[in-house]
Amino acid sequence: MKRWVAYLFLLSGSLGGYAQINRIDLLSLYTTSPSPSASVVPKSVSGKNPHLQSQSEIVNLGYLRQAVPVEKEIIFTNSGQSPLFIKGITSASRSHLEVISFDQRIDPKGVGRCTVRIYPDKKGTFSHYLTVLSNADNYVEVVRLAGTAY
Predict the structure, then answer these.
(1) Are 82 and 19 contained in the same domain?
(2) Model-level pTM?
(3) Is there a single domain that holds both residue 29 and residue 85?
(4) Which of 7, 22, 26, 141 is in the most buried spot, having the most CB atoms within 10 Å?
(5) Are the C-beta atoms of 66 and 79 separated by less than 8 Å?
(6) Rounded Cα distance, 114 and 90, in Å
(7) Which tens digit of pLDDT belongs to each residue from 82-134?
(8) How far apart are alpha carbons 59 and 71 in whole angstroms?
(9) Exposure string (b/e) for 109-140, b if CB count within 10 Å is 16 or more?
């Protein structure tokens, strides 16, 4: 009986590792499929998709005065060979970061701009995230804005 318990234990351990590897593979299938909202944005007809690049993954805002709103311009480039259409730019922290304007169309090899307003409400370091949805092959681009309020 003890031998059977030992075999079952060893068997479950090896199958458990196999299940974890397959679970990760299955999760990657779900996370790489486009979301329904992203499919509304027009795709490139030529087969050469646009590619969205931000000036940096982390935009350093430096030192900002507390409770004084500051506007910042963020630069995006389309390094693809067809026009890029930005569907929207959102922020999870709407009370501290507001999207003022952004270019909805960026031509191939062109530059687009997004203007945001930051409201540093307390002293210390902070970071906010912008999520950009587009028709690019990387249809979701996340940009982190970080700074220190004094």
Answers:
(1) no
(2) 0.66
(3) no
(4) 141
(5) no
(6) 11
(7) 999 999 999 988 779 999 999 999 999 999 999 999 999 899 999 999 999 99
(8) 13
(9) eeebebebebbbeeeeebebebebbbbbeebe
